[in-house]
Design goal:
The chain starts with 20 loop residues before the first strand and ends with a helix. Helices cover about 60% and strands about 10% of the residues. By secondary structure, it is mainly α. About 35% of the residues are buried. It has helices spanning about 45-50, 55-65, 70-80, 85-95, 100-115, 120-130, 135-150, 150-165, 170-180; strands spanning about 20-30, 30-40. It has a two-stranded antiparallel ribbon. Helix 7 (about 135-150) packs antiparallel against helix 8 (about 150-165).
């Protein structure tokens, strides 16, 4: 195997009842980037320790520090553990590698929201939407920030857009009914 034949392989067994979300990561094999699904089980720090998810992500980064998807997954993992400095570090690294990925801006917006930085959170949701108009979660979360800033008409527009792109978005319907 030469340098262009690099591949990363990890086997992580995660019990079905703690799986949260399937996300893809980029793996370079034979000089070509491939996207592969990986389970993101980040319900609690105990689950993370038991499953070795954090260690697995760090091993991938040790082999390929420019893997923006794994930096993104680590930012989600640390964000859900409320380790916001590490979450922000990894999402910023992901964005420095892949600056046009809408979901990364949504994650940055979530981190900024948890840090209490409403303005930068709103800007990140808007950037996410500018990169991907079909982004109901970003519209929904932006609407909640608009409500905090007492911008009801903008919040309603964002809720309507969230519902437009995800017609069964129950949370958006509930908030819309409450503020319409």
């Amino acid at each position: 195997m030469n340098g262009s034949d690099t591949s990363i392989g990890l086997n992580i067994i995660i019990p079905r009842d703690i799986r949260v979300d399937a996300i893809t990561i980029s793996i370079t094999k034979n000089g070509k980037n491939k996207r592969k699904p990986i389970w993101n089980a980040v319900l609690s720090s105990e689950v993370i320790k038991e499953t070795g998810v954090e260690d697995a992500y760090l091993k991938i980064l040790n082999a390929d520090n420019d893997n923006s998807d794994v930096h993104h997954l680590l930012s989600i993992l640390y964000g859900q553990q409320n380790i916001l400095d590490k979450a922000e570090h990894h999402i910023n690294k992901a964005l420095s590698i892949t600056p046009d990925e809408s979901s990364y801006y949504t994650s940055l917006a979530n981190i900024k929201k948890y840090q209490g930085d409403i303005e930068n959170s709103a800007k990140s949701y808007q950037k996410s939407i500018s990169l991907n108009k079909n982004n109901p979660a970003a519209y929904y979360n932006l609407s909640l920030l608009c409500l905090k800033k007492q911008q009801s008409s903008q919040a309603i527009k964002n809720l309507q857009l969230a519902i437009k792109y995800k017609s069964n978005y129950d949370d958006a319907y509930i908030v819309l009914i409450q503020h319409y």
